[in-house]
Design the sequence.
């Protein structure tokens, strides 16, 4: 005898209208979240391409400064009665001689001036080392080239390690001017604005220059005058 098959409950076949609406709502929210993530990632990538990351700007600035400071040239001051190196170091600015930046010209010596502007730009000024009409201590920088190293800088602190002017102890000093020698080390500290305000590792550079105080440097050959 065949068993009778019980008819199916019509309510158990397929989705109800409420279940269908709930599923559509869940799918809609999921699609919205995915599209938002894609658009956000695209916007971040575009921003990353058009403007360098703060860390990259700091690395670039430190690379330029380290290269210039390590290659300081010990040029004697022409306006001094006694032998003095043309190196003017203060707590907030620094003037020195070094080879020219690669983007300007090869194998030449230029005057440099590092300072922080009132707008928070760290600028490395440069001018021809053959121009004796420019005074490193003069605040007028007309005619100097400008290389902007960083923006958004709150404060700068430069210090110099070496013997005291009237002593033999080697200490960190906030000023190095009118000396017969170069500092052993130069340290530059910066405070930056924004979330990366502390991302400036202390830049400490040792100048490689050897200074000979018994001769005056010829600006063309960069040798002692009278030497072959």
Sequence:
């Amino acid at each position: 005898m065949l068993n009778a098959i019980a008819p199916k409950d019509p309510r158990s076949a397929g989705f109800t209208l409420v279940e269908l609406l709930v599923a559509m709502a869940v799918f809609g929210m999921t699609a919205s979240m995915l599209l938002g993530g894609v658009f956000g990632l695209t916007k971040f990538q575009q921003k990353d391409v058009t403007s360098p990351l703060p860390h990259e700007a700091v690395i670039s600035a430190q690379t330029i400064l380290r290269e210039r400071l390590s290659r300081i040239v010990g040029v004697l001051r022409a306006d001094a009665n006694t032998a003095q190196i043309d190196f003017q170091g203060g707590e907030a600015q620094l003037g020195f001689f070094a080879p020219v930046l690669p983007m300007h010209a090869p194998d030449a010596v230029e005057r440099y001036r590092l300072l922080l502007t009132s707008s928070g730009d760290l600028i490395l000024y440069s001018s021809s080392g053959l121009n004796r009409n420019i005074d490193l201590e003069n605040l007028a920088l007309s005619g100097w080239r400008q290389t902007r190293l960083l923006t958004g800088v709150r404060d700068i602190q430069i210090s110099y390690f070496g013997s005291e002017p009237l002593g033999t102890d080697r200490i960190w000093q906030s000023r190095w001017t009118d000396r017969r020698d170069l500092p052993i080390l130069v340290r530059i500290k910066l405070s930056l604005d924004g979330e990366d305000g502390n991302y400036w590792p202390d830049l400490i550079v040792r100048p490689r220059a050897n200074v000979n105080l018994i001769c005056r440097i010829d600006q063309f050959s960069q040798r002692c005058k009278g030497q072959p």
